[in-house]
């Protein structure tokens, strides 16, 4: 079983609505300044790469392509606004609360959370496969 | 003329891991980012134990004396020795094999700290560097006010165990789940027990990384206890029974939505 997630390197959830709002405001300002700005957001899927015991990893990136035309000059900028990847699913473990006393330390129970984050600490597993797939997606985005 | 673009995300595979540089400045000088990657590639050439002609490989074969090695190599080896003493031998460049040196446990963090200094000198104000799960942050994750860094959940690949929100910080995590990282307790030469992962945050990544390695090697609950007393560094440890232990200073860094659950607080005895 596979699960699509949007944790690693993902600024998409927060960045995209803001970006679209800015783009709309820019468009009206740009008309007055005789510069045309076109914003296109597209998804690019990298190749599925085998990652040893974990199964395959496949990265999808969301790219915001901004084309600014001033007279005959055209400037294109691309920005990755989101990265999602598929990983093999893992079963949850039961949660157990340890009552052992420990000085200077707060104690809680481990939880799994799915949050909007920019990057992950401690995630070296799958990394090579992740990067290969990511690079494949970036190459596709550059050609688009 | 260097190319100026808005924001930049670059990934390269160096030192056997992906290194991601995510710049959120309005205008990014590509050449500065390139210099940082040039530096990291040079570090790989110098320190890799997988490259036969690296200075470390030559040291290990007895073809090069420490005194004749590059100043950077001598600096790293000297710091490794300091750390070995600071960590009561739990951070040890000879942990894997007694007859040979492998300073890669320090080199990763140390080289990222230097790469960050290159970006700083080049005037880049908002960036994150992620070297195989060890992280260095500066400024803001524009358009957001802070960078949000997830700490890998030890059992669930698609989830995080906590979220740190910060501006200028180094974050290192050591865990048993890292493929290829066969972390051993240098005293017993066996994998440590009782801990799933240790995350250390503080000023520089070199120390944070070495402290995380040492605390993990100590096992639970000695590792978390030792880490809790490190001056200038805060920590979070996940024990084998899924108990999470955090220092008060670490909790301050947790994102607002990270820990909205009841807490037991054990006072110093």
Please explain how this structure is put together.
The complex is a heterodimer of chains A (144) and B (269). Chain A has 144 residues and is of the alpha+beta class. Chain A is built from two helices and seven strands. In chain A, strands 1, 2, 3, 4 and 5 form a five-stranded antiparallel beta sheet that branches. In chain A, a hairpin with a 5-residue loop joins strand 3 (49-50) and strand 4. The longest helix of chain A is centred in the first third of the chain and has 21 residues, at 12-32. Chain B is an alpha+beta fold and 269 residues long. Chain B is 31% helix and 25% strand. Chain B has an eight-stranded antiparallel beta sheet. The model of chain B is unreliable at 259-269 (pLDDT under 50). Chains A and B meet through helix 1, strand 5, strand 6, strand 7 and helix 2 of A and strand 2, strand 3, strand 7, strand 8 and strand 9 of B. Strand 6 (106-109) of chain A pairs antiparallel with strand 13 (264-265) of chain B.
Task: Please supply descriptive tags for the structure shown above.
heterodimer; A: 144 residues; alpha+beta; B: 269 residues; 8-stranded antiparallel beta sheet; two-stranded antiparallel sheet; 7 helices; globular; disordered C terminus
